[in-house]
Each structure stands twice: as structure tokens, then as C-alpha cells.
Design a protein that fits this description.
Strand content: 15-25%
Order of helices and strands: HHHHEEHEEEEEHHH
Radius of gyration: 18 Å
Structural class: alpha+beta
Strand order of the largest sheet: 2-1-5-4-3-6-7
Helix content: 40-55%
Distance between the termini: 41 Å
Largest sheet: 7 strands, antiparallel
Number of strands: 7
Length: 259
């Protein structure tokens, strides 16, 4: 599928949950009420742990201010749960993940595999504005993509026409570096050349590089915890849990709106 600038027209629709597959529906049906109660709480605690690692590892002032999120997404890219200080970040990564799946997953020159690390900051691909750089990991179990993990925070400088969020900017081309969904690492290792390219666009390259690594540390902690769940309960359990959480959230939201 060829997706380019026209992708921006698809972004609002991509915020809606993807239809569950037959396998995902079957996995949901196997989740007991007890396991659902225990493991929804556990996912929240995992995201909280990763958020603390994120805050303690990075330099951005907005990490301490709470302009961040650590989130968990289904294999199709829908947000399941997360820990955030600014909940508008709930929409930051979903369109970017779905773009990766549509544009790069089957591209022979790029592809998608276990250990990949991606970053995005371009509002045309679902971000809020260039300072909000979001990183995502695909999570695999037994060679199968079953989830995504993300971490985002507002950076202090992106190389705009003026420092930070400059009031001098009159267009998106004066707001500093804008990154479409870009693979910046493989085999759980960041590529130093691409990391240098991105940080070289800013007035604070060392800080930006540290913050990118902090995102990776946060995502990797969630990956480690997910591996433990898969070892304990199996991949089908995690698939079913994630989709059941999305379904229950949808049900609860509709009930609240009806009130």
C-alpha cells in the first residue's frame, strides 16, 4: 500500500479501534474474571514502573512536569492502557503504529521485525507537535507480533526557528525537525548514526540523545515484564487480555456517554 502525504486524511479514522480478529476473539473468551482483575492492575503497575525509569533516566524538564506517556498497544496499534501526566498523549502513537503497519511492515527495504525501535514526531502522522517525540517497540512472542509498547515526552528543543516552542514559527517548516515514523534501531539497539542525525538538528543534542535512550529504557522494561507474563500465562493470554481491555473500555465509555 502506497501511503504518502495523503495519509494525514486517514489519521482521524485510525484513532478508532481496529476490529478484533477471530483469534483475538477466541483469546478474549478464555480470560477469567479473576485473571482480568489481576492482570489489568498488573499492566498498570508495569507502565508505572516504566514511567519511573523514563523520568529518572531522561533530562527533559517535561519529564518531571508530567508531559509524557508510557503506553501499551494491541498488535493493531490501539491504546490499551498507559501512565501519563498529560492524557492527550493517549492519541500520540496510535496513528504512527498503524502507519508503520500499513506502509513499512511489508516493504522489502524496511520491514518490521522483533527488536525494531521506531520514533515519530511529525503531526501529519498523528503526533501533537514536533517537540512530542514518541518511540514505539513491536512486541513479539514466539515470532508473532502481539503488542506494541510506547514512550513519549515533550522535548525542550527541536531546532525550530527559535529556542523551544518558538512563537516566531509561521509554518510547520519553522518548527524544527519533524520525524515521520522512522526505524532508528534494530535488535534492541539504537543506530548511532540516525541518533546523531536527529540530535544534530537541535540546540541541545546531548540532552535529546539521553532522552531518546530514556524512552528506549522505558519501553524495554515493559518488554521484559511482558516476557514474564508470556512465560507464566502464554502468548494467547496476553493477546486476549489486551483486546478484552479495549472492549471493556469501549463498553464503559459508551455507558458513560449514555448517562
Amino acid at each position: 500500500m502506497e501511503l504518502g502525504w495523503g495519509f494525514v486524511d486517514e489519521v482521524p479514522g485510525l484513532l478508532k479501534p481496529e476490529p478484533a480478529t477471530e483469534r483475538e476473539l477466541e483469546a478474549m473468551d478464555k480470560i477469567s474474571h479473576t485473571d482480568y482483575a489481576i492482570y489489568t492492575e498488573k499492566l498498570g503497575l508495569i507502565c508505572e514502573e516504566a514511567k519511573e525509569i523514563f523520568v529518572r533516566s531522561g533530562r527533559a524538564a517535561m519529564l518531571l512536569a508530567g508531559d509524557l506517556i508510557v503506553g501499551v498497544y494491541t498488535a493493531g496499534g490501539d491504546l490499551v492502557t498507559g501512565m501519563a501526566g498529560a492524557y492527550i498523549h493517549a492519541v500520540t502513537s496510535t496513528p504512527a503504529i498503524k502507519y508503520i503497519l500499513r506502509r513499512w511492515k511489508d516493504d522489502p527495504t524496511v520491514g518490521l521485525k522483533e527488536g525494531d525501535i521506531w520514533i515519530n514526531s511529525d503531526p501529519l502522522y498523528g503526533g501533537l507537535h514536533p517537540p512530542d517525540m514518541a518511540m514505539v517497540f513491536p512486541f513479539y512472542a514466539n515470532g508473532e507480533l502481539i503488542a506494541w509498547i510506547g514512550a513519549a515526552v515533550h522535548e525542550g528543543d527541536t531546532g525550530a526557528i527559535g529556542p523551544a516552542i518558538s512563537p516566531l514559527s509561521k509554518s510547520r517548516f519553522e518548527q524544527g525537525i519533524t520525524i515521520p515514523p522512522l526505524k532508528i534501531g534494530e535488535n534492541y539497539h539504537l543506530r548511532q548514526d540516525i541518533l546523531h542525525l536527529i540530535s544534530n538538528h537541535t540546540r541541545t543534542p546531548e540532552s535529546l540523545e539521553v532522552d531518546i535512550r530514556a524512552r528506549a529504557a522505558a519501553c524495554d522494561r515493559v518488554r521484559i515484564r511482558f516476557n514474564s507474563i508470556v512465560e507464566e500465562k502464554g502468548a494467547d493470554f496476553l493477546v486476549g487480555l489486551l483486546h478484552l481491555m479495549v472492549k471493556e473500555t469501549e463498553r464503559g465509555a459508551k455507558a458513560r456517554i449514555k448517562e
